[in-house]
Every structure is written in C-alpha cells, then in structure tokens.
Amino acid sequence: MSITIKACPVCEGKAFKLKFICTDYSVSSEEFKIVSCETCGFVLTNPRPDPNNISRYYKSENYISHTNNKKGLFNFLYQTIRKYTIERKVQMIKKFDTKNLLDIGCGTGEFLNKAKTKGINVEGIEPSEKARKQCKQNYNLRINESADIEAYDDNKFDCITMWHVLEHMPELSRLIESMYSKTSRNAKIIIGVPNHNSWDAKYYKKHWAAWDVPVHFWHFTKQSIEKLFKNHGFVLLKTKPMIFDSFYVSILSEEYKNGKKNFVKGFLIGMISNLVGFFTKAGFSSTIYIFEKKHRF
Ligand SMILES: [Zn+2]
Questions:
Q1: Which pTM does this prediction carry?
Q2: How close is the Cα of 38 to the center of ligand 1, in Å?
Q3: What is the dihedral of CA 34, 12, 196, 63, to 10 degrees?
Q4: Can you name the residues that pair with 287 across neighbouring β-strands?
Q5: In angstroms, rounded to a whole number, what is the distance separating the alpha carbons of residues 203 and 250?
Q6: Where do the domains of the chain lie, and which CATH numbers do they carry?
Q7: What is the pLDDT of residues 203-229, one digit of tens each?
C-alpha cells in the first residue's frame, strides 16, 4: 500500500517531475521516486508507503537514534557527539527563555531530560513504544504516543522542537497549524532537518544517505521550509549549522555508493561540505531553523 501526494504542501501545485530514483539501502532495498514540484521546486518522496505501514521500513539495527548501544567506534563517536549536541540544543532553548517545551519525536528522551534538569517543563511525543519505555525507565518521563498534538491545551508551549523529525511526518500543513494553535505569542519552533542544497548532497546525488527513502517523506531547503512555515504564520528568525551531520551522512553515503565503508573519504567530504556551508549560500548538510510565531490578523 502506498500513498501518492497530489498537491504540493508548500504551494499547492499539482505537477511534479522526477528528480531521481533512490534505493532504500538501510532496510528493504526497494526503490522510491524523489520528485520536485514544477511550480515551487519543493522535493518529496512520491509515492511513499502508507503511514500505517511505514514501521517495517524502520526495523533496522542501524537505526541507532533509538538505541543507546555503544558497540563499535562509529556508534561510540555517535553517542559522544550526541551528548555534546544535546548540551548545545538545551543552551539554545534556554537562550529563548523557554519555560514550556514540547519535543515532537523525542526518541529515548535524552534531550528532554537534559532540558528538565535545567528547570524547563517538558512534554514529549514519540511513536516508538520501545523508545517511550526507555524514556520512562531511564528518566521517568511520561511521553505521549500519538503524533497528534491536538490533545494539548491551546497556547500551552513557548517552544516546540523537532530534531530530524519533520521529514518523517506524513502530513505537514495540519501539523504546522496545530503547532500554531498550541503555542503562545512569539513562541519559537526549532526544526533540524537535512538540506539537499548542501555540497555533500550534490556530491553524492542519489546515493546521499539523508534522502533516506522511504522514511523521509519530505526533503527541505532553506527556501522551501521558510515558505512552508510562512504560509502558517511563522517567520524565520535564524538558521544554525549541524556540523556533525555532514560527517555522519557522508560516511554512510560512501558506503551506499561504493558498497564498502570509507571513513577517511566520508570525513573529507563532510569537511568540504561544512566549509562550503560556511562560505556560500548552499547551506549545511543539516540545518537548524528557528521560527517565531507571528500574529496572522
Ligand atoms: Zn510547490
């Protein structure tokens, strides 16, 4: 069962053209089409599996964001860097004087727990039952199951975060509308997603690991995400690079492209991508976008 998106969620355009065909290297080896909107250029995986049937594409030992396994150097580095980046993320939301935080797609809860220790009231949403159990066991966090944020009170949150989550959400417009109603005046929405304008994406083309079909439904750039959120009453305040993602994605992409690991080359490509990100408008392999809620009337 698959679903075909008929209208572009950014501009409502109805015509798409094929960009390329990508393989799911991590789980199914199936092929999926990546298309772009002929009107605004927004890129999406289309068709994609029915959201009710997507879980089988996540059943991968390699999907390490939901585990805390420290086996192997790659995983060890991943976990060490994750600890550092969590610190940075919490510093970022503290800077905006966050009091009531919602993290959508909170995984095993490390970020939420760190925010809680800094005195922030935290709520989380996570579809994986295994990850929710770990939140409870490790940090005594009670996490909601449903991705539907309608159950929360209106105007409740002054900050909503989504770390590598928006690209997995089946429905964009309704979700962003909900984020508007569930947040207070001038609330911040902080979104980390891959950027297919980055140098590493252009270098690896269809082998770029952050296409991550079919679990990544949407593929953003600064232009497309800014327009999408503007449609729903949010303005882009600033962007921040996620400089470690370029290395992780490039090392994985090397493996997808050549069938074997090449840490040195992956590291090099990641480094070039970061330099290009700093000195040009291409942006970084993954970017954090900070939006502010504005009055719509
Ligand atoms: Zn469009």
A1: 0.93
A2: 7
A3: -60
A4: 193, 241
A5: 9
A6: 55-293 (3.40.50.150)
A7: 999 999 999 999 999 999 999 999 999
